[in-house]
Write a structure and sequence with these properties.
This protein is mostly helical and 145 residues long. 50% of the residues lie in helices and 12% in strands. It is elongated, with a radius of gyration of 20 Å.
Length: 145
């Protein structure tokens, strides 16, 4: 969601010539490759590219590294993943640190926030007569747990 909003911002201010938004996982990118164009590539679970289990992933990383150098101002890469795994991703090529100087870290949801989201989802989907704190929700939680 944040990546799409950022991509629209880049397009609206003319920072990039294209408006394309490509969303793909790291392993998907390793298998499908990169279609050259203008716009934003959002690579979810980008750390998968640096995995030793991902055949071709390191070649894609090398390609991304070259694209960042050669196509500054025409293409943007937004890389997402868990913090520890992304550190391994950046270790693949020390040049990534200087090429991708901006990093945003989002805090994990608290238990209370997760419970609120769970409650809202249950209420939208199941419409429990006594709400998410009533007997039906407690039975559901007991059966799931």
């Amino acid at each position: 969601m944040v990546a799409r909003i950022y991509a629209r911002l880049l397009a609206s201010v003319g920072a990039l010539p294209g408006k394309d938004f490509v969303e793909i996982t790291g392993s998907g990118l390793a298998h499908e490759g990169v279609a050259a164009g203008g716009g934003v590539f959002f690579i979810d679970e980008a750390y998968q590219l640096a995995s030793t289990n991902n055949f071709g992933g390191r070649n894609v990383l090398d390609f991304i590294h070259a694209e960042i150098e050669e196509r500054t101002g025409t293409i943007a890469f937004i890389l997402a993943g868990y913090k520890n795994e992304m550190e391994k991703f950046f270790e693949h090529n020390p040049g990534f640190d200087s090429q991708i100087p901006q990093r945003l870290h989002f805090a994990d949801y608290s238990d209370d926030e997760l419970l609120t989201m769970f409650g809202a989802t249950i209420e939208r989907k199941y419409r429990l007569a006594d709400g998410t704190n009533g007997i039906y929700a407690r039975i559901l939680v007991k059966r799931l747990g």
